[in-house]
Every structure is written in C-alpha cells, then in structure tokens.
C-alpha cells in the first residue's frame, strides 16, 4: 500500500540569483516523524516555506496524498491539512486558548456570527488532550509559559490540519530552539502523541534531537538534500560529517585556547539585590570567562540586565576596577566599558532592517567620527576591518543585517562591542542560542580570543556543556540566588551531574 | 550521550516545574487575572464616590444620582461604540460631528417648529442610520483607502459639523414631540429614561463583545492584525463594521442629545470627544488595541462624570475644573500603565 502522505519532487528555488534550494525531493509517510536537519542556510527553512505554502517552488511539484497541489497561502495549505507551527509563535496573547486554537477556523462553534462557547471549549480541550497537554481552554494565552504556548500552538496546528479530509501533516519549524531540556522532553512526548494521528516534519539543527525523535531524517547542505538516513543506524559524528561536510574535531569549544586569567579583579559584585535576584556576590577577573547557569526563571537574565543598567537594583554594589559604579541606564554602562549581548537577538540585540555597518557602529559611533561628524569613509574602513577579522560572511557592509545568517548576525552584534578599545566587561546572554554548529564554534573561538585579550566575560551559557567547557569558573543560580560555584580548569572540569544538582 | 542528557534533565524539570495547568492559583491571583472586569477602574470609582460623598452630603442624594445618570447617559453610549474601534487599535474622533449632525436630523424629523415631519420612532432609526452611514464612510476610508483612522475621523467630524450647519440654516428646530422629550424629562424607577437607553446599549455592547464573531475578532485584530490575516480573517470587513457600530452609537447619542436639550443644535455634541476618549482610556482600554472592553469604558466614563459633578458640588472654581479633569486623565493613564513601566520600554 502506498502510504506516502506528502512529498516534494525535484523542488528548486532561487532568490535574487542565489540558489536556495536545488532539486530536492522528500517523502513523508503516514504517521511518520521526518527529521529535516542541516546548518543554518542549508535550505531547510526554504524547503519548509514551500511545504507550508509561504513560497512556491520555481521548479518541481508538491504532492499531497498523491495529488499535485499548489498552495496559494499558509491558510490554504492549512485547509488542505498541512499545518505549520511557527518558530515565532502565532498565538494572540490577549484571547483565550480555545479561541486561539480555532482562530479563523471555528466551524460550527460559531453559528451565524454567534459563539457557542461550551462547544468551542470542549473541542479545544479534546485537541489539548490529544497531545497530552493540561492547559485549560479558558486560560488567557499570555498567562502561559513559552513552552506551554508552544503546546497550544501544536494543538492549533492539529485542529487546523484535522479540519481537512485527510490525516494532517504537522510541520514543526525548529520547535526546540528556545526550550529548556525538560521542555524539549515534553515536546517529544507530544510528538509521539501526534504520531498516532498525523505525520510530522521536525526541523532542527540539533543532531541529538533528530536522532532521538525521528523515524527517518533528511540531511540538507548547500540547498541540496545530501542524505537520507535512519537514526537507528547513524551516530552524531556521522550526521555531523553529512551536515557540515567535514569531521567533528575536538576543537568545538576551542578548549586548547583557554589560558589561566591574570588574577586581577575587574568586576566585583557584592550582595547585589533587585527584583528577581538577591544577594549576588562574585568576582570577575580580567581575562576570565565566568559562566552562569540556571534553569528558566533562575534570575540570571535579570541579573545580566541589572549589571548593564537595564533593570533596577535595590541594594548591593558593583565595583569596576576598584571604583564603585552605579548605572542608571545601559548608556552609562556602555560608557564605562561594558558590552551586553541580549538573549533575544532578533528583537533586542540587533536592528535587522539596518545595514551591517549601521549595526556595527551603533553602540560606539565615536569610533567612526571625525570631530562631531560621522565619517563614512572611516566607518566603511572600520567595518571592513571587523568583517575581515571575524570572517563575517556578508555581500557588503551596506547589506541589511536581517539578510545574513544567524551566526553572522551574532558576529556583527559582538563586533558592535569590540570596536570599542576601552571594552572591559562583556556580558553574553546565551550568545550561541539558535546558531548552527559551525557558527557556534566560531563564536566560542571568538570568546576565547577576547578572554585572552584581557576582557572579562560573563557568559550565560545556553547549555550546561557550553558553560562547563567554556568557562574558568561556573556559578549556578537558583531562585534568584547563587547556589554554588565550581572551578573549571581544562582537564579538571566538574561533572555535569554535580553542577546540575545545584541548579534545581 | 544525547538520549542520556535529555532523560536526566527531564527528571530535574519535573521536580522544578510543577505548573499552573488546569488548576490555577489563589483567589486573588485569579480575580486579578480576569480581564473582563475592570477591577482598578471600579476601585477608583468607589474611591471617588466615597471621597465626594464625605466631602459633600448632596453627592449621594437621589437627586444627584439622577443628575449623574442624566449626565452619563450620552457619553456612555458613545463610549460603547468607541470601545470596539479602539479595541481594534483605531480611533474615532468624529463623535462630536456625528452627534451634531444626527441631533439636527432627529430634531427636524420629529414634530418641531420648523418642518412638518412627524416620524416619531422612525426619526430615531433614521438618525442612527445616518450615524452608521458616516461611520461607514470613515471605516471604508480606513480599510479601502488605507488612511489612518486618526485623520479620516477628523475629516468625518468636520463633515458631521457641516451637515449640522446646513440643516441648522440659522434657526434651531425646537422639538415639540412629547415622546422624544419624555426620554429626558420622565423617569422610570426614579431614574431618567435616557439612563435606561444607555443601560440597554451597554448590555447589548457586552453581549456583542462576548458572544459575537465581531466582538471577539475586535480583540483578535487589536492583538495582532498580521496573525488575524494569516488565519484567514477578513480584517477590513470587521474594522469597517467597528466604525459603523461607533457611528450608529453616535447617531443614537445625537437623538439623546436632542431629547435632552429640546432642540437640534450644532453645539449638542460639544465636549463629548474628551469625555468619551478619557473614559475609555481611564477604564483601562489601551489605545494600542486588544485590551479592555465595554465594561471598562463605561466605568471610565462614570469616573469622569462623577469627578466633574463632584467638583461642582464641592465648589471648585469652574475655571480650574477643566484643568483638573485633564490632570486626572494624565494621572489615571500613568496609574494604568505603571505596571508596564520598565527601563527599556519604548514610549512614543
């Protein structure tokens, strides 16, 4: 029996002369979880956009249950039973969960323009039950955590998909990129539930996840589908080789580049207290990487914001090079030699509509000024310098930042602080989140380089591995307080279980 | 390595992340989360009533309650219509113009001293339809011509004034229709009949807000128009409808204004724009859309009217009153937005 639910045959797509997708064919069988893995820029998001109806392929066909289809829009694809769970969530915060699940698709739950609430809520509850979520359909959506909202999003995709005649195909676009490990585990349970009534396409750049959850995986590189593999018979190293086209070296975290710091205290935080954190004390030395790890709501993000003057402090002190500093705004902190990379690159870290040049000189325009005026030539020269130094892949300095890949965007954001020769302290909130492996390795190497140059780095690590491997010292935060501190010399790193114990 | 990583942290997460789920927090947490009831605005209203009640013994008398009801009726009706427009993130500045026009239309169509019409209830319906028509012009200009509602409704405001002036023709029509005059003059259960008209509009507004697609989509569109579009919702249609509803409410308010003043007058709408928008905003409906509701706006209007009334009673100089009203709006908005205050919040 032919049980292929959804497939693409020979799809190609070019954007302004760039071949984003070249002759890609994939099949999704009924009740199968398909992995789609590749580095950022490998073409998996373009493929997903074709599958979900955002783009049309230039060549090639999309087949749904054996019939060729042309999706005119996302809404059209959804009506046909192909529903996408977007990375940036598409739920409205100010209405109830039930309304969100059936938004624009209320069916008989709205009769002649009038709501039949009990029916709507019952149906929403059924969908939530189907994926094992405990969320109440009456809850206003903004009251839910990100992870729970994602469950609602999946329920919504299921509801939309099931309004067609066939079993739905659910497309999950990097659903794990902003989830904590425990939440990822929950999501996997949901995917296993989904599998009983739908086909799933799971997009990720994390190899472990694809190996854990998928029945079959397609590996993409440079716009092509380079391999189809069976997770049962392939390992991480093999997958990495397929994705990147070269072997995984021991240099991922650039551990051989870690050197002991000089010992001179750069930043001394003592008994710092504010909304969301309390009694925080630590020293940060010049040339040291100090990792802060903690679960969601451990208070570390707020602490980072407070250190750069973006959140308020009620008591305690911060001493920079022996002098007490008190920042009323991030501008004060920047003037004192602080750099800060926020966790949300797309909204807080960079201006996607501005050019690479404008972003790079945003925080320290004085570096490209002659007297009171900005100098175009100086700006171009400086930017070209940094683009070269950090190997930022961009067509030119006047390219909008938004059109670069995530890794290159993050390098620009880092460079924004590096242009300041007076940079003393760099606070990095999960700088590698959402980056692909290659770009992560680049960022790690860059952090090492900065530390060697004497900059004090406070790293809010994205994963425990990252925190342990990257730092000289690691502090764990729990409920807004520091719960433990571990020395982290190369070769004598703490066990992850020991660190984990102090996080929860 | 990988599966082991995940399973370990799973146990950890379960221990740490006991969640709200389908059983929710304490009573107060639940009450404060219910957005359908404007708790802060109600508290403010209660406070105002207590303060003025203590300051002046006449404030809480039946006669003054009647006066309050009489003064609130028109802005309450206006605020109900305005709420749907503002929920969608638009604004309707035309209320005074539409009230002027429909006040004149209704005065000329009932028994009066200038024309020989005596359409009675039909005059009310026609006035409401005229208001809805002006609203439709505004709504279609916003959605089809894509002009910001702020500008469009300044235009329809003046159009309304223009219509009123043409109909005015130098001499105000004095109403002789006893039925219409009785709306303002006679009472039911001790309250002016106009107040019951307003109450009916409020109840209808609440029902529309909660039970109809139009009402719910007002929140959807105000909360995220792009998401609404992606979900296949015909945003333009609902937005136009909101302006029509607001126009219809203004039309009814025009009739009520005629009833109160006993004549058609261009000035019948004066002062209502400030009162309506201030009321809507004080009640907690955000001008950016998606938050608040009919009940919020009504409570906001009651706050504004009580303050105006109370200030007169306690003898604050009429020259100062207007500034005090303005200051209260600024204060109230500050209080409403206080919890959203954050160092990096962008304010334009």
TrEMBL record, chain A:
InterPro entries: AAA+_ATPase (IPR003593), ABC_carbohydrate_import_ATPase (IPR050107), ABC_transporter-like_ATP-bd (IPR003439), ABC_transporter-like_CS (IPR017871), P-loop_NTPase (IPR027417). SUPFAM superfamilies: P-loop containing nucleoside triphosphate hydrolases. The keyword Amino-acid biosynthesis does not apply. CDD domains: ABC_Carb_Monos_I, ABC_Carb_Monos_II. Residues 6-247, 260-504 form the ABC transporter domain. Keywords: ATP-binding, Cell membrane, Membrane, Nucleotide-binding, Repeat, Sugar transport, Translocase, Transport. It comes from the Bacteria. PROSITE patterns: ABC_TRANSPORTER_1 (PS00211), ABC_TRANSPORTER_2 (PS50893). This is Sugar ABC transporter ATP-binding protein. It comes from Streptomyces humicola.
Automatic annotation (TrEMBL), chain B:
The keyword Membrane applies. This is ABC transporter permease. It is found in: Cell membrane. It comes from the Bacteria. The chain crosses the membrane at residues 39-62, 74-99, 119-142, 149-168, 188-208, 238-257, 269-287, 294-316, 322-340. InterPro entries: ABC_transp_permease. Its main location: membrane. Keywords: Cell membrane, Membrane, Transmembrane, Transmembrane helix. It is a multi-pass membrane protein.
């Amino acid at each position: 029996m032919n049980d292929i639910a959804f497939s693409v045959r020979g799809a190609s797509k070019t954007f302004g002369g760039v071949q984003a997708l070249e002759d890609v064919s994939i099949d999704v069988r009924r009740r199968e979880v398909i992995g789609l893995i590749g580095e950022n820029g490998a073409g998996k998001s373009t493929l997903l956009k074709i599958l979900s109806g955002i783009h049309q392929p230039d060549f090639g066909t999309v087949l749904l249950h054996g019939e060729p289809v042309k999706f005119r829009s996302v809404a059209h694809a959804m009506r046909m039973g192909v529903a996408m769970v977007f990375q940036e969530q598409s739920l409205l915060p100010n209405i109830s969960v039930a309304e969100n699940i059936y938004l624009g698709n209320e069916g008989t739950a709205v009769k002649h323009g009038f709501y039949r609430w009990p029916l709507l809520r019952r149906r929403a509850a059924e969908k939530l039950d189907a994926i094992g979520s405990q969320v109440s359909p009456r809850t206003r959506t903004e009251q839910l955590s990100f992870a729970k909202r994602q469950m609602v999003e999946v329920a919504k995709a299921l509801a939309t998909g099931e309004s067609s005649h066939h079993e739905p195909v659910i497309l999950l676009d990097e659903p794990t990129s902003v989830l904590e490990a425990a939440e990822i585990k929950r999501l996997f349970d949901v995917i296993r539930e989904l599998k009983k009534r739908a086909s799933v396409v799971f997009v990720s750049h994390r190899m472990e996840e694809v190996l854990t959850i998928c029945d079959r995986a397609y590996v993409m590189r440079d716009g092509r589908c380079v391999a189809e593999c069976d997770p049962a018979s392939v390992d991480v190293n093999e997958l990495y080789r397929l994705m990147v086209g070269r072997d995984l070296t021991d240099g991922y975290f650039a551990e051989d580049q870690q050197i002991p710091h000089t010992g001179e205290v750069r930043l001394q935080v003592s008994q710092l207290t504010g909304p969301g954190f309390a009694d925080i004390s630590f020293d940060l030395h010049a040339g040291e990487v100090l990792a802060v790890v903690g679960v969601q709501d451990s208070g570390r993000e707020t602490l980072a914001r407070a250190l750069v003057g973006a959140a308020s402090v009620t008591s305690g002190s911060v001493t920079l090079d022996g002098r007490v500093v008190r920042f009323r705004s991030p501008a004060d902190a920047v003037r004192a030699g602080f750099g800060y990379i926020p966790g949300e690159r797309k909204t807080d870290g960079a201006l996607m509509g501005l050019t690479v040049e404008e972003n790079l000189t945003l925080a320290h325009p004085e570096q490209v000024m002659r007297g009171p005026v900005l100098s175009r030539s100086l700006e171009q020269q400086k930017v070209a310098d940094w683009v070269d130094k950090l190997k930022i892949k961009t067509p030119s300095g006047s390219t909008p930042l938004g059109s670069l890949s995530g890794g290159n965007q993050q390098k620009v954001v880092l460079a924004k602080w590096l242009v300041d020769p007076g940079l003393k302290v760099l606070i990095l909130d999960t700088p590698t989140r959402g980056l692909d492996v290659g770009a992560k390795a680049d960022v790690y190497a860059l952090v090492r380089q900065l530390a060697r140059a004497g900059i004090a780095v406070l790293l809010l690590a994205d994963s425990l591995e990252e925190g342990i491997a990257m730092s000289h010292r690691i502090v764990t935060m729990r409920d807004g307080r520091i719960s433990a501190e571990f020395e982290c010399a190369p070769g004598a790193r703490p066990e992850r279980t020991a660190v984990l114990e102090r996080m929860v | 390595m990988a599966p082991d990583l995940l399973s370990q942290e799973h146990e950890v997460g379960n221990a740490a992340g006991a969640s709200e789920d389908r059983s929710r927090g304490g009573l107060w947490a639940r009450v404060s989360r219910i957005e359908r009831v404007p708790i802060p605005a109600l508290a403010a209203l209660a406070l105002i009533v207590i303060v003025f009640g203590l300051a002046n013994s006449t404030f809480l008398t039946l006669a003054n309650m009647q006066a309050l009801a009489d003064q609130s009726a028109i802005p309450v009706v206006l605020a109900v219509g305005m709420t749907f427009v503002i929920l969608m993130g638009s604004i309707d500045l035309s209320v005074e113009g539409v009230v002027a026009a429909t006040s004149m239309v209704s005065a000329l169509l009932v028994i009066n001293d200038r024309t020989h019409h005596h359409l009675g209830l039909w005059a009310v319906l026609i006035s409401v339809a005229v208001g809805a028509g002006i609203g439709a012009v505004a709504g279609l200009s916003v959605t089809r011509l894509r002009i910001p509602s702020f500008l469009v409704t300044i235009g329809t405001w003046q159009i309304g004034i223009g219509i009123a002036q043409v109909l005015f023709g130098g001499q105000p029509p004095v109403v002789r229709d006893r039925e219409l005059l009785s709306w303002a003059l006679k009472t039911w259960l001790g309250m002016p009949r106009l107040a019951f008209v307003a109450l009916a509009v409020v109840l209808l507004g609440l029902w529309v807000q909660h039970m109809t697609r139009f009402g719910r989509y007002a929140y959807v569109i105000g909360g995220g128009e792009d998401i609404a579009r992606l979900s296949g919702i015909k945003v333009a249609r609902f937005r136009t409808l909101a302006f029509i509803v607001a126009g219809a409410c203004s039309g009814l308010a025009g009739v009520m204004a005629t009833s109160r003043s006993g004549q058609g007058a261009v000035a019948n709408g004066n002062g209502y724009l400030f009162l309506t928008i201030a009321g809507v905003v004080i009640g907690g409906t955000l001008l950016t859309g998606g938050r608040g509701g009919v009940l919020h706006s009504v409570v906001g209007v009651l706050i504004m009217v009580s303050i105006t009334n109370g200030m007169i009673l306690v003898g604050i100089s009429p020259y100062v009153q207007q500034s005090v009203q303005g200051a209260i709006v600024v204060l109230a908005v500050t209080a409403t937005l206080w919890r959203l205050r954050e160092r990096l919040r962008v304010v334009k």
